[in-house]
Amino acid sequence: MEDSNEEIEPCRSIGPHELEAVKSQAIIKLSPVQVPAHFKRLECNTNLNLPPLNWLTTSHSSHGLHQALYQSGGFASFRLGQMFPDCVGEVDVVSDAENIKQLLKLPYSAKSAISMVVHKVGNTLLLDEFDIQKYLLRKSDDDWKWLRSFILDHILAYGDEQQNFCLKERSREALQTKNLLSKFLYHSLKQTSDTDCDANEPTFLTSRPASLPIIGPVLPEPKIEENVPDPKSSHAFNRNVVWTFEDIRMLIGTDMPIFGGPNRPCISLRLRDAAQPINVLTGIDYWLDNLMCNVPEVVMCYHLDGIVQKYEIIKTEDLPYLENSQFSPQVVRNVAQNILAFLKANATKAGHTYWLFKGRNDDVVKLYDLTTLYQNQNKAAEKTEHPQQQRQQEMNPFTVPVGMLLYSVARNMKNTLEHISPKTAGNIRALLDNCIKLLPKEQYPQIVSSSHYILSDLHVPAGIDPKAPKFNESATLFNDDEDEDEDEEEDEDEDENFNDEQPLGFGRDMYYQSAAESGGKANVAVRHICDALRDFKSHAKQSKPAPLIASTVDRCNISLQHISAGLSCLQYFNGNQEEKLKESEMHAKQEEKQRILHEEQNPNMAKPFNAIPLPYEQLQIAQPSAQAQAQQPKKRSIKTKSKRSKSKELTSSSNSNKPEVLTTQKLSAKFNSQNFGSWNVHLKLLLLEKACLTYATLAEHYYEAQVYGSTLRAIELACRCQQVLNKYMANVVSQQSCLLGRAGDCFFQISKHWSAIEQYVQQYEQQDEHSSLINVELTQELEEPDLLTLVPVKNVEQVMLHSCKCYEDALEHAQAAESNELLRRLGNVRNELGLKYMYSAQEEYSQMKRKKEAATGGSAEHSKAELDSAAESVASTAEPLYVKLTINSYDCLRRGIAAFTAVQDNVNLAFLYCNMGRFMRLRAHLTMPNESTIGLDTQKTFYNEAFEYYEKAKDCLDTRKANPELWDLVQWELSTATFTLAKQLQDYSAADKSSLAEASKEVLDLLQKSLRLCDVEHAGARQVLYSFRSGLIHKRIASFHYAQLRSHGVSDASQLPKATLQLCKYHYEKATQILESLKEVRDLLVVQLERISLHEFLSDVSTHAAQKVKQMQAALDICFQCQLIFGHVIDNNSSVNVDDDDEFKAHLTLYESRLQNALKTLIKLLLTTGKDPKQLSALYKRMYMETLTGKHGIGAQQLATATVARSHHLHTLLTRLKTMCGAQLASN
After folding, report:
1. 1060, 1064, 1108, 1068: which is closest to 1086 by C-alpha?
2. pLDDT tens digit string along 694-742?
3. What's the CA gap between 449 and 777, in Å, rounded?
4. Residues in CB range of 591: below 8 A, 6 or more apart
5. pTM of this prediction?
6. H or E stretch including 198?
7. DSSP assigned state of 677
8. 88: exposed, middle or buried (C-beta count within 10 Å: 0-12, 13-18, 19+)?
């Protein structure tokens, strides 16, 4: 370590140590000098008054000795905070090491003065020396005017006590001592060779990464002159250290030289006058310097009048116990803890400037809240004519640096943490809120708008899914908050206990007074802070920042507030920005001129022993930029020269920051790589991007809550934000497809909940102030034709068409993965719209038919010529509405089929095919304007197309297992269509004799096919309907066969085809069985009447009297079976309402006549043959007379009688007739 072989003697005048040692640890954050410097031991009798050759050199080989004694740190805490924003909020104090030492020496330096400004940033206090003479007394009247006038007028005393606040000792003796120490340090610096210097380049010892991992877009940096109150002082410390002293963490800057060598790698050097002993203050100074830098030893060099005498080495832990300079480390520890507690208890307001002051020979340390005191005494001045001008003239010089530091710390916390908890988010929010309050947006629009952007991103983080937003609000975080609440309650209990235990101390000695009690003035006695750890109670409530926990709607609304506030700052960019850009351009030109002049005066000559490097340049370095320029919008090629210069400046700044940018989010990365021309456009696009995400999240929330009007408003604004982004950025990740797709969903839901359309329109028209401001900004950026509007109109058809339009526009912007889902939704709306058109066409056609029938019925009042002319005029003027509706229905269904075919959605495709089949059935019954009536052949054509669509639907499903409900629906529709066509052909067929057989066969085939399609096996809602339909089909098949029997025209029953007769009876019996089980009295009565008619026909064509009697007896039996029908009608539990059914009344009358006819025919047949062994003719006569002598006779009065009463009469009549038959059989 030393040139001499002699070992440095250890110091022997060390007293006994205390049992308990203080805890200290130092971690170097950044050191721009070589550590340590090579130590050279000076020979005895070396004259230190002679300056060494390397004295005051500023090269890297000087190890920062040139600034160790002469440079003032200035307002170092602000520079340290800007350099290490990650430490602010984590440490307790940020300051210069000299300020910390000055505070910790308070008990031993009663004659010294202390003047410091204190600022609170988060949980950290910033301490800076405040030289009153330098910054106030020696300044001009305009500089620091507010502090100058306020401190001199209200706090300090003039006259004889002016030296009471002089901080620096500026005597000649003090300057000579500093010069001698400086020469000694340079003498002790061992000179190294050039090769050693080259090998030992300056090393940067740092515990932080070389570049901050920034997550998110690039945001503006505070300027250097805005970071500190005094921009002229730009002192850089040799070491920036995080020092932990007991439980206090401090970020400090120190310039103490550190030397070392092979034997002792780390020591500090001190020069002492051998004629003067070391005092306590000097010992504390040495001890604290070594603790702050983790230096284990100090080497003392003693001199007499500048002549070196000897060296001594002392361990750091021995410094408090040197003879004549002993001090207690425990007292220093108490001072540190009590001073910090005093400051934290009273310096509680972020953004306020506090002044910590102790005059010479004062025994009280005072803390003034200058901001509060100034506000209290100048409330009247704020009401002057020009408050804004007065504010600018008397602005606190510390306000802007504090605001900038708050911004830097918050931005660092936001960008470096991968997961932000609600507690951390609350801290960031508090920092930025205070920053916005401190910085006037007119002067600092970049920082204020960036702060608003960070706050908006804090509430709605980039990268969240709008459909399912997650905000890191887990249960564990709530538990932590509960623990904190418990801690606060414990602290309150301790406060109460403390007040109860020591009430006399505050009242009797008045050694402590809080700022809240005295209106902004706090003080504490120096002797009080030397004792054990004290509790300094603040009477003002110190509320911690609340964790950021809010609902989705609240987060979005707060985010929109900050976005609108950020956009409102953009108007202040143009004036100041243009001037600053011009100044920077002029400055750049001057620097270029100076560089050229310097190169001309100092040509770059080759050095003999240095190789000349060949220039190297990448061959393809210009290609990416050329591609980027080719991708820019055409509008950007038309710019003024000023905007081009701005874009060049921004490009250079963004390129310099590229290594620090961690592009984890696609959209943010796009922002960083574009050349926008100015921060104005850059921040505007960032805010609009955030607004787009916020509105999308808000729209999803409103959609889930079925607030569809507000949903459309949010989507409209989000789409407009996206349009502005697309205008400025060529390769931005577009969200148009998602937004427009959700707008289509919203319109579709409105059409399904049409009763609340008025409410939805009101929701759409409601717009808060912040959204209005954002909308104004968007309308200024977009031209009128480009503005997207999503107004819910009061027309359900138009609303559904808007839905389709939104889906189609979304498909234009969608990728392959998104297009399938959009096509499904589009096909669904097309299907619903097609059905609506279909039902509307059917209703319109029905109304037209009714009007036409009414017009035909009133033709007696109008001539036929007038009606024809009116019809021709209507037909010529406009096409009927039902025609347009029919065409629209077919077009929508066809497009829906195309959409589902494209995505191969078989289930929905089957549903569309089913609806298309239903449309074809409707079309088969519509008469076009150029048609008088629609023929059966045309109907058959449309029905055949319907059958094809139904078969396609079944092919899509393949089996019933795929989708039983849809399969049953298709089956039902197909059965209905088949049965309807069969009825049409059976009832209205007018085929000639040549084609009658084919037509009959076709009808029978259709009826049998429809019967096979009746699914009566599977239980379900349609099982009863299928059963009823099967009964009707059996009836129609039987009627068909009956008609076939009558069409033969034979006179003998034996000539009738037996198969046809058997099928006819079989289907009549099946129809009777089914309809009777379903209690369908109307159709059952018709079937029974047809069966009676069949037997009457068989009786007529029979040649033998016995056969005739047999057939008529069968008809009479069927008449008796009808008693069940009348019983169902009479039954009170029956839901059958037949009172208003004229057809049923006519069938009752027909039944009575058939009953009487059967009895009368049997009487004639029995009397004619003369063979009546059982005397049935007499029975039938009595029965026939019973029908004639009943309560109600047959005639006009009976038709007017209530149907139920007639049924009751018939039921009673049949009962008596059966009784008569039973009595006759018993007698026989």
Report:
1. 1068
2. 999 999 999 999 999 999 999 999 999 988 888 888 777 778 889 999 9
3. 15
4. none
5. 0.76
6. helix 194-199
7. S
8. buried
- Alpha-carbon span 271 to 293, nearest angstrom: 19
Name the strand (E) or helix (H) holding 175: helix 172-187
Both tokens assigned to 707: 């607030």
Q: Residue 529 and residue 437: Cα distance in Å, rounded?
A: 35
Mean pLDDT across the chain:
77
Q: For residue 964, what are the contacts with CB-CB under 8 A and spacing of at least 6?
A: 1018
Q: What is the pLDDT of residues 919-954, one digit of tens each?
A: 999 998 888 887 777 788 888 899 999 999 999 998
Q: Is 644 helix (H, G, I), strand (E, B) or coil?
A: helix
Asked if omega into 36 is within 30° of 0 (cis), the reply is: yes
The helix/strand/coil state of 214 is strand
Q: What is the pLDDT of residues 246-258, one digit of tens each?
A: 889 999 988 888 8
**Which amino acid, residue 40?**
K
Q: Are strands 93-96 and 661-662 parallel, antiparallel or unpaired?
A: unpaired
The answer to whether 353 and 135 have CB atoms below 8 angstroms apart is no
The alpha-carbon radius of gyration of the chain (Å, integer) is: 52
Residue 116: φ, ψ to 5°? -140, 150
Q: What letter represents residue 922's amino acid?
A: L
**Three-class SS state of 705:** coil
Q: Are 134 and 326 in contact (CB under 8 A)?
A: no
Cα 177–Cα 181–Cα 183 angle in degrees, nearest 5? 120
Written as six digits, the tokens of 591 are 């620097």
Residue 832, both tokens: 């619903």
Q: Please enumerate in sequence order all residues whose Cβ is within 8 A of that of 557, keeping only pairs 6 or more positions apart, or say none.
A: 768, 770
Structure-token match 């400037």, residue found: 353
Strands in 37-38's sheet, in edge-to-edge order, are 9-10, 307-315, 297-304, 267-273, 259-260, 37-38
- Compute φ and ψ for 125, nearest 5 degrees: -105, 135
Q: Would you list the domain boundaries of the chain?
A: 24-150+234-267+326-381, 417-470+544-590+675-687, 706-814, 824-853+879-958, 959-1078, 1104-1191+1201-1227
Q: DSSP string spanning 347-359?
A: --STT--EEEEE-
Element (H, E) at 1044: helix 1023-1047
* Residue count of the chain: 1228
Indicate the burial class of 467 (C-beta count within 10 angstroms; 0-12, 13-18, 19 or more): middle
The amino acid occupying position 454 is I
φ, ψ at 850 (rounded to 5°):
-65, -40
- 37: Cα separation from own chain's centroid: 56
Going by C-alpha positions, the residue among 119, 137, 139, 135 that lies closest to residue 127 is: 119
- The phi and psi torsions of 407 (rounded to 5 degrees) equal -65, -45
pLDDT digits (tens, 9 = 90+) for 265-281: 888 898 988 888 888 88
Q: Which amino acid is at 428?
A: I
Closest Cα to residue 745, out of 462, 461, 467? 467
Is 567 in contact with 684 (CB distance < 8 Å)?
Answer: yes
CA distance 1082 to 1079: 9
The CA–CA distances, whole Å, from 257 to 63, 440, 1022 equal 8, 42, 98
Q: In degrees rounded to 5, what are phi and psi of residue 239? A: -145, 140
Residue 126 phi, psi dihedral angles, 5° rounding: -100, 120
- 610: helix, strand or coil: coil
- Other beta carbons within 10 Å of 856: 10
Q: Measured between alpha carbons, how far is residue 979 from residues 287, 360, 906, 990, 1014 in Å?
A: 109, 114, 27, 19, 10
In the numeric block, which tokens belong to residue 201? 């380049």
CA distance between the termini of the chain: 152
pLDDT tens digits, one per residue of 445-473: 888 999 999 999 988 888 888 887 877 66
How far is it, in rounded angstroms, from Cα 394 to Cα 373?
14
Residue 284, token pair as written in the block: 């504390």
